[in-house]
Every structure is written in C-alpha cells, then in structure tokens.
Write a structure and sequence with these properties.
Layout: H1 24-41, H2 52-67, H3 80-97, H4 114-120
C-alpha cells in the first residue's frame, strides 16, 4: 500500500493569473445575459461596434434599476447587475477592437480624479456620525 503525503508537486505559476478566484455564480449569470443577447440580436453582433456611450447608458440603467430595488430585468428575467457587467465587459473588449466608436467626451470632471473634482466644487466628505439631516 502506498503512503499518502501532503507534499504537492512543483508548479511554477506564482506569476500567473489566479483564475480559480473568480466566482462561478456571477460568471454563469453573465453567460445567461450573453445567451439572451444571442436570441435577441444574434451571436457576437456587439463586436460590429456601437458608440460606447450607448453601452455606458445601458449599464447605468441596469445599475439604477437594481439600486432602486428591482432585482431582475423585466424583459429577460435576468439579474440587472449581470446585464450591467455584460455591458462593461463589452466596453473592456472595445478598448482593444473598436476604438473608432469611442465617443467619450474629451474632458470629464473625473479625469484628474474624483477627489479633486469634489474639492473644486465645494464637496467635502462627511465625518463619521455626520448626516445630511438638519432637522434635529
């Protein structure tokens, strides 16, 4: 009978991406959105290109619907955040393949960082325990 040991075989992967850290549940939900998209639009038709602002708008609509308390998209029945993530993945892909559809404004208030924007516009972070409620 062979004796079992706890010593692992050598594997030189310290510098590689830790793909096992990705959660399979959210990935399946994004795959469901992509599958729904193939039924509605056809497979990989997003790769033809579209102004990036359209995908930003779609992602934000799904985020705001979820933030407002609606979990699933009424049309697809799938999670709003999975739809938003799908749109963001498209944008990541477009940075490499469809830069001609980049219609972002040339200057945005966040170009130099949100903190600088906040300072310039008089916003300040709230102290712990501080609230906007002035009714007391």
């Amino acid at each position: 009978m062979k004796k079992k040991t706890n010593e692992e075989a050598p594997k030189h992967d310290n510098e590689k991406l830790r793909m096992e850290l990705f959660m399979p549940g959210p990935l399946r939900q994004v795959a469901a959105v992509l599958t729904f998209g193939t039924w509605k639009y056809g497979a990989n038709t997003y790769r033809r290109g579209l102004n990036w602002s359209r995908y930003v708008g779609a992602a934000l609509r799904h985020i705001y619907a979820w933030y407002g308390g609606e979990k699933n998209d009424p049309e697809s029945g799938l999670h709003h955040l999975a739809h938003a993530i799908t749109n963001l993945i498209f944008l990541l892909d477009f940075e490499d393949i469809k830069s001609e559809f980049d219609d972002r404004p040339p200057e945005t208030p966040f170009k130099d960082g949100a903190e600088q924007y906040d300072r310039e516009h008089g916003f300040k972070p709230q102290s712990k325990g501080e609230t906007d409620d002035q009714s007391n």
